[in-house]
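FIELD: query
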Amino acid sequence: MSYIRIYTLRDGTKRKIKIEEGMTLQDELNKAGITESDIFQMQLVIEDNKM
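FIELD: result
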C-alpha cells in the first residue's frame, strides 16, 4: 500500500507526490516544489499494490 498526495494549486494545475514514511508537510512541499500559499486543495490517495 502506498500513499499519494495530490495538490491542486491556485492556478489550476496539480502536483502529485508519493509520501514516504516520516515525511513532514514541509518535506512534501519541498519535494513538490511548492509553498503553502500555492495550495488550493490537498487530497490523500491510498493505492493498493496487491493487484
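FIELD: remark
The chain is about 15% helix and 45% strand.
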